[in-house]
Design brief:
81% helix, mainly alpha, 0% strand
Length: 230
């Protein structure tokens, strides 16, 4: 049980240190940085992937983009991509880190949005057309509400990936909660390593809860019941 004693000792040391709660390197500022980078990358990924996934799923055109995107998500090395963009673009702004974060976040959202729209019961699509709806009306009023759980799942997966990758991005000099882990390892300050790791886990859990609440609020009860039956 020595490891457990050490673990809680490091937690008390980290969170009980007043210096860790103030200044540019304090927990509030590091948390705000992590939130800023993650939210910006996820927002840009959603703005790119959701419209593209809706269009491809609705029209059936460009499906090769989804296949390529899914394969890239499995093949791209996270840290390697981050380091490459930093080397190419420098560190004078946050964009050399935000761009690869967006690239890594787009595939799950794109694939799930496409699958969500493509997987809607054809009879529902036909019924919408039969009611006189056309084009974008069918997509927005009939298909998207049914596909919303899968779309939100893709966003949730990307959000978790962004939170984790933003942590890794601290290797390139980015701020955020990952600084505690990386700087702690470099200086053998294990209290910072443990404290930073716990903060990152809690951040990810909060993101999970927020997306669960978002799905509960936005998804139609009828669609939710249908998913439970399946």
């Amino acid at each position: 049980m020595n490891w457990l004693t050490s673990f809680f000792g490091w937690l008390v040391e980290f969170f009980g240190n007043g210096a860790n709660w103030s200044g540019t390197g304090g927990i509030p500022m590091r948390l705000l940085e992590h939130l800023e980078f993650s939210a910006l990358a996820l927002l840009l990924a959603v703005l790119i992937a959701v419209p593209l996934g809706l269009a491809i799923g609705h029209t059936g055109r460009g499906e090769v983009i989804v296949v390529v995107s899914a394969n890239l998500a499995r093949a791209l090395p996270t840290l390697g991509l981050l380091v490459l963009f930093v080397l190419l673009l420098g560190t004078s702004s946050i964009w050399p880190v935000i761009i690869p974060l967006v690239l890594l976040s787009v595939p799950p959202i794109l694939v799930n949005t496409y699958e969500g729209i493509k997987g809607v019961d054809p009879e529902l699509r036909d019924a919408a057309y039969g009611m006189g709806l056309r084009g974008g009306q069918v997509l927005g009023r009939a298909l998207v509400p049914v596909a919303l759980p899968l779309i939100l799942l893709g966003c949730r997966l990307s959000a978790i990936q962004v939170v984790a990758t933003t942590t890794v991005a601290s290797y390139t000099g980015l701020g955020g909660l990952g600084r505690y882990v990386i700087d702690g390892f470099a200086t053998k300050d294990y209290a910072s390593v443990v404290g930073g790791s716990v903060l990152i886990v809690l951040f990810a859990l909060v993101v999970q809860v927020l997306f669960t609440l978002l799905q509960w609020v936005t998804v139609s009860p009828g669609v939710s019941r249908r998913l439970k039956v399946r």
